[in-house]
Each structure stands twice: as C-alpha cells, then as structure tokens.
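Let us work through a complete example step by step.
Step 1: write down the sequence.
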Amino acid sequence: MLFQTVYDMVGHTPLVRLDLDVPEGTEVYAKLELANPFGMKDRVAKSAIEEARRIGALLPGAPIVESSSGTMALGVALVGRSLGHPVHIVTDPRIDPMTMAKLRSLGARVHVVPEMTDQGWQGARLERLDELMRDMPGAFWPRQYTNPDNPRAYRVLADELLRDLGTVDVLVGAVGSGGSLCGSTRALRRRLPALRSVGVDCVGSALFEQPDRPKRLQSGLGNSLSPHNLDRGIIDEVHWLNDHEAFAAARALAGEQQIFAGNTSGSVYRVLADVAARAKPGSRIVGIFPDRGDRYTETVYSDEYWAEHKVAELPLASEPAEVAYGTHVSQWSRAEVRRPRELPKRVLFVESNTTGTGMIALSRARELGLTPVLLTGGPERYAGLAETEAEVVVCDTGSQAALRAVISQRYPREELAGITTTSDFYVPAVAGLTDWLGLAGNPADAVAACRNKATTRGVLRDAGVAQPRFAVLTDPADVAGAVRAVGLPCVVKPADDSGSNGVLLCSTAEEVAAHAERLLSVTTNARGLPTARTVLLEEYLDGPEYSVEMFSHDGVATCVGITAKQVTAGPHFVETGHLFPAPLTGPVAGAVAETVAAALKAIGWELGPTHTEVKLTGSGVAVIEVNPRLAGGMIPEAVRQATGIDLLEQQLRAATGMPLDLAPAHSASAGIRFLLPEGAGTLDGIEGADAARAVDGVTAVTVTAAAGASVRAAENAYDRLGHVIATGPDTAAVTRSLDAALGELRVGIAGGAQQWAQAR
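Step 2: predict the structure and record it as tokens.
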C-alpha cells in the first residue's frame, strides 16, 4: 500500500498471532494499534476532526483544543497540524518527556496544569480547557470522552479485523475513554452478534464501580470520571490489574513476544492469556494493543522508577480472582459486568409530526419503560406535549452539529436506547445521528432516496418498479420539455414537502409553469429547513388510491396492511378519510404488497415503518411515493383498533433494538374521517362532538383546531379541523358509523360563504 503522507498512514495496522500456551485450535492475535504513526488515538483524532470539518463544527484555520496526557494529544497534533489548525493540548505533570518533546516538535502548544482538583487530574485539565475555550472563540474541542466520533473511529478497525480474520469470538481491549473497545465491539456485533467483549481496567479506576485512586501509576487506561462514550452494557467481562501487574505484563510482552509496548498493551496481553485458557477450543481471540513502549522507558521499563514508587511491593497475581461485580479489588481480578440498574433508557425524538400520532408516540415510549426526550426548536407547536411528561430539550434541530453537541454533552452513550421521529422532515437528521452513535437505524442514502421524491423516481425507474411518467424541474425554463415528456393533465409538486402541501393538478402548460415557478421560489419549508428547490411533474393516474403500511427488519419488509384512501378530486389532493383494511381481493392485495416490497428493496430500506402510496390503474399497481416513516393521519391508530398491532410501539421497539411483534391479535375494520372546512373565514367552533361520540362504533371524536383560528377551503393536511375514528366488523359497518357521526357535527365559520354547516 502506497501512502502519500503520514496522515494517510492512520489505520491499516498489522495483526500478529501470539505464541501462547493455549488449548489446541485456539488462536490469539494482537491488533498492533501501536503501529499507527503515534498510536491508537490517531484514529480518533482523524475521525473527530474530519467529521467536525464536514458538518461545520470546525472551520478552516480554527484552533483545536484537547485534554490528554498521551496518544490522543499526539493524534490531535498530527491531524490538526496536517490540516492547518493551531493545536492546544492540556495535560498534567504525569506526561512523559518523550510525548512532550513530540508535541512541541509537531507545533502544538502544551498547557500543563500544576495540581489535581477533587476530581483528580482529569478535573484539573478540564477546568483549564474551559478557560482556553472561552479565550478562543470558534475553537473546536474533540472531546474524546464524550464525542461519539471516538468510538465511531473504530468501525474501520473492526472492518480490518473482519477482512483479515473473517470472524472473531472474543475481543479484549483496554478501557479509558470508552472509545476503542465499545466502538469496535458495537461494529463487530453487527456481523458477529455472539462476540464476547472483555474490558481491561486498572485498580484504582472508577470506570467499573471501583473507588477512584488518583495516584495510580498506569496511564492510557482507567479514569477518575465516567466518560460519556463508555457503554458498559455491551461489555461482558472486566479485568482489573494493579500497577505492579500491568508493568510486569508489559515487560513480559517484550520478552516473550518481542513487542515493545506500554502498560496498557501489557495489561491486555496478560488478560488475553487468561481469556484464551478459559475459551472453548477453536476460539479466535483478538486483543487491541494501543501503545508503544518508547513513552515508558523512564517508568515501566525503569528499575529506578519501580524502586522509587515501590512498585514491586504491590501484589502480583499469576491469575485473576473471580469476584462479584462491585467488589473492591487491589490485585488482578475479573467480574461479569452488570449495567447499573439506575441508568435510564432514553429514546430521543427529533421533533414530531403535529397532525397525527406524534404526542401519542411520546406517551407510548414511557409505557415501554423508556424515557422519552423531545429535541425541538419550538415546543409551543405541540398541543398536548406537557401531558406526555417527556423531557423537552430546546435546540436547533435543523443543524446536525447542534444536535450532536446537545446529545453528546447531555447523555452518556449507555443511556441512549434509540433515536427516532414521527416527522417526515427530520428522518434524514435521525439517520445521521443513528449512524453517528451506532444505534439502530437506516442508511442515510435510503432515507435521502425517500425524502427527495425526485431521487425516489430515479431509483424506482432503474429498478423497473411501476410508477407514473415523470420529469424533474429545477429551472422554470425547462417546463415546456417536462410537459411534453409527461403529458397533460399532470400533477405538479415539490420534491421534498409533506402532507400534500403544494401538490396541484394542472391542466395546461401555463398552469404548470405558474405553479412550478411558485414552488421553486420556496427556499424553506414549514419547519424552517431548506428545501431541495426541485419540482416533480408526474403523470396523472386515474384510479383508486391506497397506502401500504410496511414494517422492515434486517431489510425484510412485512406488509402490515393496506389502507383505502378517500381523497378530494382536485386540483388539490386532500385526504378526507381512510378505511383499514382496504376491501381488496387476495390477488390484488398481494400484487400491491409485492410492488411496494420491490420499491423498498430498490431504495435500500432496512429497518422500521414505511408508508407507501400507490394507485391501482388499468395497467396494474403504480407507486406514487414512498414515505420513510410511520403513516400520519391517524392511520396507525386505525391499524391498532382493527388488528391490535400497535405500529407506534413497534417503531419504538425497532429504534431501540427490542423484539418486534407484528402478529395481529384480532381482525376487525376501522375508519377515519377528517373534518375539513369548505370555505375561508374564522372558525367559530365545532358543535355536536358529544352526540358524535355516542354513535355506535365511534371510538374517538377529536377537534384539533381552536375557535378563532383562520381557516380556508382545504388544500393540504394542515387544513384539517379534527377527525372521527370508528371500528366495526367490516368496512360497511364502519362507514355507517362514520357517516352517522359526521351527521351530528356542525362546523361554524364566520366571514365565509357558510355559517354553520354539517361536517363532511
């Protein structure tokens, strides 16, 4: 492999088989991360700094500040200086002279704190770092202890192991910031779910329920604080070694395997031998060796240092004592890790929809034993939010950098069960966050292919999935050619809006041109997010419309059911009601489900709900659009009442890694009818709700618009005033109940053509 710069050498580290006395067929390997230019943390520095530059958290030439006494400092200096950034390192007196010399020669400015605080050396360093950040506006702090780009960096290491070995049974790694072992374990378990993860810590470290002893001599592992990147829930076993045992192990590693490394690698080496001795014959075991020995010539490898610090007076165990987790230890010991019971399991919602089931989803999360958190830029837009008792965090949800900053600083990784949304607009943000954190989610490309309907059209065309003729417009000057390609009448709509907003049936080229120009002039959507400024022209297909509720797991889509949609005739297509399940014959329903499954496969959808709109024409099934989220318009509630399948619950289960249950508990029919204004004016109110609720079969009558609101003849889903839901043994019974309920309702509009009129 040819490297152009030292920067390009990060990663690609060798894997060597160790010569150990192990059961026959057992293989033990060392992943020599110490062979990076300066050490294992080169990977972290590269990941964090590159990603910060990509999302705009680090501007060109801005300073970088980090707290480190070892290889993270060197990695930040290497990467930061290579990319043209001033680098400031905050450290403490334990830093070795060689690392100090390297940092200064690389051009980093080093700040040494003089003494510990009550939070140890880490606390003192963080106080000084805060001062530097205040003095240098625009400075970027990689935050190795809280930034998920630390564990994310080790996905590449996991890929290297899989490429070299194919499979791994046990992974052993030291724990300090929580990045290397947790990141590698999480990545490997996507392919190897049975992988066993073994952590290596030091006596006197607080990471695994032990008392902190700040004067411990080991460096490179252990911690006085609990880093946000540490996820004890994915580590199966932990070992603690005291300073004597770790130092002796490093010397043994050099003498026995000819690997000159630091005390962290030595500790991993010692634990590898024990794990291999207890492993099933034929196991393949890998240890991560992070640090070279040159930093430790005056400590680990110095007899004078040993004598000065009385290292040899500490116990030296030849094998670990097996103890109960939480037992305080003073020499080599091991225990099965237990996740602290008091830790919450949070599910984060990035915004929510406002016209359907968003608030219900927050309440449903709590029923599943999860702690719901709503990240929002405008909590005032959500009616009923207070009743959900969700934690509300106000932040800029339109910025990936702002979302990442809030999440990483507020929530330890082991408290995060999942991230989701019930809003179309924020599905891409969720995909970015779940990938960043290694949580359950969908590929960003698949989400983007759904959110931008122009992209959807291209993907489905290439896959041969039936759909309307279409043309994509980004310039009003191209309208004539687009109309010729699609024909008239045609549907003109924005490529990335929601709720039928901006969708219009046009009969002439002049209408197309005027509407396309209006849409192209819109730069932000209803949530203030930038639009794609792309317009779709689509062939108008005459035929009944249906929505298909699918749920995917591991890329396999299950059809939960098909909904018959009632839609206004045009020129605006506003949903007036739904019936579930749709009254379709078995063969027709099967063809619909097969077409949608083919569309999802082409898009690359892997996990969770999708809501796909189709039409049945004389030529068969045609896909209108694929929505990368649960259906809106209360359809999930209709599905629940008809089948017992709670799609909101299943969405939360999928997002948090819980088992799914898509089996129907019963079979009935359900329907929804929306209250829509027929004219413009001011809403006086809606009368007759109690009488409508009393109709046999009606399960809900909900008014969502407040008296005094300005209304107009419905053009999209946001113009709805409320809804009625009914259930029954079949669609005919449901329809009768809905008709009777709406007959009891009266909508009052002042200033329009009507005063009080029967709801429709």
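Step 3: interpret the result. The chain has a mean pLDDT of 94.
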